[in-house]
Design brief:
Structural class: alpha/beta
Distance between the termini: 25 Å
Number of helices: 8
Strand order of the largest sheet: 6-7-8-3-9-10
Number of strands: 10
Helix content: 25-40%
Radius of gyration: 18 Å
Order of helices and strands: HEEEHEEHEHHHEHEHEE
Shape: globular
CATH class: Alpha Beta
CATH architecture: 3-Layer(aba) Sandwich
Strand content: 25-35%
Number of domains: 1
Largest sheet: 6 strands, mixed
Amino acid sequence: MSGSNGCKQSEQLISLCDLRKDYSTAAGPFPALKGIDLSVKRGEFLTIIGKSGAGKSTMINVISGIDRPTSGEIVIDGATLHTLTEDQVARWRGENMGVVFQFFQLLPSLNLIENITIAMDFRNTYPLKERKERALHLLEQVDIAEHAYKTPAKISGGQQQRVAVARALANDPQIILADEPTGNLDSRTAEGILDLFEQFVDQGKTLLMATHDKEIAARSTRTVTIADGRIVDD
């Protein structure tokens, strides 16, 4: 997966160089990303906007390492993710990234605190006796601490998304990736999630969000438009 050397020399926090992703289908390879070049500064709130099928979710998944690129380079804070093994990428992601999914992906048998501490357990990022206290602090940050001992089924969708945001922050990542994080929320709850994102950016974190909603994209500091697997406007 070689690409231009300029990607490695970039002073940006995130650099994507000639990034391509093909999916295998019965009809042959389907190109979801067709040569993406993108740089993101530290502390930026970047929205990737596009219609369904444009490639924005694929872009989030490839940047996070959940999907591997077919070719091209991904350099994040000096780490060449495209050269790492899946285990190495997973370890790097756990220490440096928080990911917020559209459908929450909370574990139904665990209470809200446990859904957050499990992220710390996987990476062993905080002393065992401090993890519950940190989880409670994060639930307070997203204004849902009073439900800490409930399971996800006992709270609303908007509240579950707040827990998902808290979980993404569990290991204090420098980068937060969010794929349609407000797609299943009413407008008032969505505003609350975006308020949280702005607070995190103010604290120095870098945030990349995929959405199809132009009003939501307007809350970010920079918008990139993707169509048919290519960036068409920045």
